[in-house]
Amino acid sequence: MTVSAVVLAHRRAMSERRKKIQLGTWRGLVDATEAREHVKQLRRVWHASYAAIGDAAGGIRGGTLRHLVEGTTSRDLPPPARITADVSDAILTVTVDDLADIYRINPIGATRRLRALAVEGWPLSEVVKRAPAQLAGLKKLRAGTKPQITVDLNRRIRVVYEDLIGTDPLAAGIRRSAVTDIRNQARKDGWLPSAAWADAIDDPEVKPWEVVRCSVPSCIHGSKDERLLCSNHLDRLRERGTLEGLRAKRNSEVLIENARFILATDPPIDPETEEIDGDLLAERLGMTWDALEKALERAKINLVTLRETA
Ligand SMILES: [Zn+2]
Fold this sequence. Notes:
Layout: H1 5-23, E1 29-31, H2 33-46, H3 50-56, H4 62-70, E2 82-84, H5 85-92, E3 104-105, H6 108-119, H7 124-130, H8 135-143, E4 149-150, H9 151-164, H10 176-189, H11 231-240, H12 246-265, E5 269-270, E6 275-276, H13 278-284, H14 289-298, H15 303-308
Antiparallel strand pairs: 1-2, 3-4, 5-6
The structure holds zinc ion.
């Protein structure tokens, strides 16, 4: 009678476990979620195969990782809730740079990097020298017509990008005409600067400027373009031609928040009327009642509603 590979693997795992228990190094099982999410992330961002990730995790079979993420439908098995601590650790240490050089991955980060370099006036010929790489391949990458890139080339492009981005190509001795040409091309093709991606340049699902905060202090929205403004503030800029006056508005918002905080925590009450003492509240905000009243009017709110919402 032959013994199936599954049974053999199980036996091997059990004997490993026994050995480790005897040695006192058995760390047991841990929640599989973190490792599962990590594998999903490597697949989503980098289009890394299960085999590539498994190799990098020290020889975990691709099928094992597939089971971790998808379960095994043919045998009606759901993904495991728990895995061994060793396997979890091995998976969690894998980054894109740990994948073997020859594997092919998502080129989107490399494309964005080459374009951002062009925006700053860095021609491909300079990248080629430093990477080193084939000019024709990089051209395709920058044009966005290469469906995949090797792990190795991806890493080399990133290294060059990190060296060059934010530095002046003219100061590095690149001909002025070459710098101007490439900047013009970048403008014509609508290529985006490095700032558009913040630190999410490799994430295929991130939209440009989405991860960059609006530059108006206190605004919580993502900015939408190179002016570093969210759509609200872009509209406002278009309407008025300026963002002056926003600061005043913001200050009154902050003021009302502070007033609300005082009312919620330690409201100044006039003992005779048992109502909020406006003068005292204003004083604690470092202003006169007149000024506070005006700010409240502008915000279309009065002491009663302010207190109710505190
Ligand atoms: Zn904004």
